[in-house]
Amino acid sequence: xxxxxxxxxxxxxxxxxxxxxxxxxxxxxxxxxxxxxxxxxxxxxxxxxxxxxxxxxxxxxxxxxxxxxxxxxxxxxxxxxxxxxxxxxxxxxxxxxxxxxxxxxxxxxxxxxxxxxxxxxxxxxxxxxxxxxxxxxxxxxxxxxxxxxxxxxxxxxxxxxxxxxxxxxxxxxxxxxxxxxxxxxxxxxxxxxxxxxxxxxxxxxxxxxxxxxxxxxxxxxxxxxxxxxxxxxxxxxxxxxxxxxxxxxxxxxxxxxxxxxxxxxxxxxxxxxxxxxxxxxxxxxxxxxxxxxxxxxxxxxxxxxxxxxxxxxxxxxxxxxxxxxxxxxxxxxxxxxxxxxxxxxxxxxxxxxxxxxxxxxxxxxxxxxxxxxxxxxxxxxxxxxxxxxxxxxxxxxxxxxxxxxxxxxxxxxxxxxxxxxxxxxxxxxxxxxxxxxxxxxxxxxxxxxxxxxxxxxxxxxxxxxxxxxxxxxxxxxxxxxxxxxxxxxxxxxxxxxxxxxx
Length: 502
Ligand code: UN1
Prior knowledge:
Blueprint: E1 12-14, E2 17-19, E3 26-31, E4 34-43, H1 47-66, H2 69-85, H3 87-98, H4 102-122, E5 130-132, E6 138-145, E7 149-153, H5 161-172, E8 176-180, H6 187-199, E9 206-208, H7 213-222, E10 226-232, H8 235-247, E11 251-255, E12 260-264, H9 270-282, E13 292-298, H10 299-314, H11 334-350, E14 353-356, E15 360-361, E16 371-372, E17 375-378, H12 385-388, E18 395-401, H13 404-412, E19 416-417, E20 419-423, H14 427-436, E21 441-444, E22 460-461, H15 475-478, E23 480-487
Parallel strand pairs: 7-8, 7-10, 8-9, 10-11, 12-13, 12-20, 13-18, 17-18, 20-21
Antiparallel strand pairs: 1-2, 3-4, 5-6, 6-23, 14-17, 15-16, 19-22
Helix pairs in contact: 1-7, 2-4, 2-6, 3-4, 4-5, 9-10
């Protein structure tokens, strides 16, 4: 298949062809591990580019909608196979554009593969219900029907997985797609769209427009023809997206912020909890929606746990994600680096105890990159800003607690509700926590990260608007129900009225 990453200047993909942006402008994407290395130039698209992409999708829609779902699925199965064959190359590109270590970028591509195969299987299901009628000689059944054009806006932290979470279910349901990836990681979307196209997705069915949120994302959300909008990003932007979608009565799926907690009780397997906390707090440099940014530890093990966590986090090898020895890569961009540094100052001012890190790392090979040391705050109390606000970096707040009751109170005492976890050997406490943690996802004796594609993904409170990605649940975002009643009695039968006479 074609080389995915030959040209340093990339183009939008509209109506089956790679096109220069009508704005004539490009954004430079830099490698966060080596800011002197340009990954490529990517379109800085505007409203006219979005209009062209949406029009292409509208034009392609009737044919794609009428293509039998099992035929659509065959194309997606081929796409999954191509993603698999190119996993290593795509992972390399992803590490270069957004920094996470190769092990994780391979995992990201794998998540897209998993989603593609899982959803392609839906091509021969997309089950509805058949059910008895309250009247004789009458049949009731339901179908999922596509909606039209889906405008999809995706973040940089899972640059292939999240575009797949949104576009693959949209496609299997029979919708056409306009994808707008984050400007920090567009190359992975170029690779993803290339694979779909190579697999045989017809022209206009999948379109890619690249650019900034305000200039390119906002017109996609506001376009009257995008009848589905799905957005993953900040709560502040999500509110705007949701408000516009509500004005136009669009289907709207929002995946927003998180402030996820791991509870470690006195009876936990401490080594297991430690491994889980390290992975959830510092994996992906803490830049997952599902990352654990709070660890709530019962007093009996608090001191020992904090000591071990500090020791282990201090040993993490920070560096270029392309180096197989690296355990934690850079943060994505300079703005994030500044945000993280500012939260460290806030934490100190609030009286939390900085136990590890808290600073940028610039020594040796790290000089040209955006590296921030694994950072641990101890003695954090629930009302501190570092215990309430999403930081999106390698910063974790460790909080002492009295026991399960207080741990749940702390864990639930935030505005978000994506993921949570508890480490305990007591099945009764584990089950109580699983019930009472106010999050869309809860883990027992496992960290807050690592959701699998065949289960619903999403959160409560300010994390979203009640919809779910992944699993079969996401089909409700990308389709509508049609209910069909077939009356073969040959007579007028009146529901709710004629039933009395039976
Ligand atoms: C995200 O952080 O936005 O559950 C997605 C996980 C991954 C997906 C994370 N499978 O951590």
